[in-house]
UniProtKB/TrEMBL annotation:
Name by which UniProt lists this protein: Glycoside hydrolase family 1 protein
Enzyme Commission code(s) on record: 3.2.1.-
Gene Ontology terms, MF aspect: hydrolase activity, acting on glycosyl bonds
Family membership: Belongs to the glycosyl hydrolase 1 family.
Keywords from the named record: Glycosidase, Hydrolase
Catalytic residues as annotated in Swiss-Prot or TrEMBL: 380
Cross-referenced SUPFAM superfamilies: (Trans)glycosidases
PANTHER family on file: 6-PHOSPHO-BETA-GLUCOSIDASE ASCB-RELATED (PTHR10353:SF122), GLYCOSYL HYDROLASE (PTHR10353)
Amino acid sequence: MTKTIFPKDFLWGGATAANQLEGGYLEGGRGPSIDDALPGGKQRMAVVSSPDFDWTIDPDKYVYPNHSGIDFYHHYQEDIAMFAEMGFKVYRFSISWSRIFPQGDETEPNEAGLVFYDQVIDECLRHNIQPLITLHHYEMPLYLAKHYGGWKNKQLIEFFQRFTATVINRYGDRVKLFLTFNEINSAAHLPVLSQGLVHKTGADDPKNMFQAWHNQFVASAQAVKIAHEFDPAIKVGNMIIYSTSYAYNSDPVNQIANLEYNQDFNFYCADVQVRGEYPAYTDRYMASKGVKRSDLDITDEELALIKKYHVDFISFSYYMSTTTEVTGVSHETAEGNLLGGTKNPYLESSEWGWQIDPAGLRIALNELYGRYRVPLFIVENGLGAKDQVEADGRIFDDYRINYLKSHIQAIANALEDGVPVMGYTPWGCIDLVSASTGEMSKRYGFIYVDQDDQGHGTLARSKKKSFNWYQRVIATNGAQLDNEVDY
């Protein structure tokens, strides 16, 4: 075994979200969430972005895979035991807001929902796995989207404060790592998931996006305040999509466009949540969308709260880089994690068109630390791919191993650059429902789940080759990354 650059307390693990694996739809007093209204299939985002979409759940017309997920609700003990077998130090998961407050605006929580997460947390701790809890992972109660219009409504600040206080007071004695809003900057491209806005409730008006962001910034600051007052040892992070961006060429027009892309997408939300104030380019960004800061409902009291209670660390998802080209040159486009851009001719792409760029992760880590000087946590990274089950049940997913190996090496390079990285939790450590397409066939996990895109299957869990590989990566603290492993 060679010497490892990873610190001895590095948090290796995996990440999931309640809406994509939990199931238990309407069980234990749970109310429906916005994800329960998202149909399965490649047209999922086109459907919810259409002018006619009004959050109606129509099972005669669509399949809703989020309703069942992979039934973690009844399989959590088995799944966490498999995470422990891999050697997880940390497990990132989310708490479904509508399992705790079924409508979202109640004054008293649903005890059955609280008990369920008591059991999940205790099961993790029994296996010496530290929980990392996301408070808001695209899981707004459906009632709040339909009757309050989503996060553009300032009343949601109060409702989320009650939810956060309930969670911290219940679990803060056992959980010391929390994240506020998952991929908060994703609203720049698709406000339905993080802000609960659709066409009928103003998703097409950028003013609503900026107001919703402000309300979430206030709610995030309140979450930090609640956590730190409960226990100063609790650390709260934000969570953004980070997509390292390159100008397509040296044309200054593309260079400026790339500068603005980074400011508006990669940095805007983090600047507020980490630095505690709106950045200097805010008015330029808002003006580019036809919005003035004076259009928004922002108070001095809220700005003071944001300033005082900034997050302790930055967490982010990294799947791909993007390329900026605005001069009108003909080019191919790329797909991506809620974003696309110009196709980079130097990179390969996944089956879903996401461009694979491990070097971009090293750049991302250096850019973020250079800008903010706070610890960083990579809480999502992975390869969505179709897996082939062999006759003997084995799955040789070397393509997944190659993807993860190259990104882990990029983390090691960033550590050598002096960047403090807290941990690494690859996305979908167990197969789950894809957020972007609602498919099971787009698999990320180390653990295979026998279920198809229509929700049919035995739900049996089995180990892929990557399971054994990641087990060794953790056991050697990142020292052994080669593909040759017993399986």
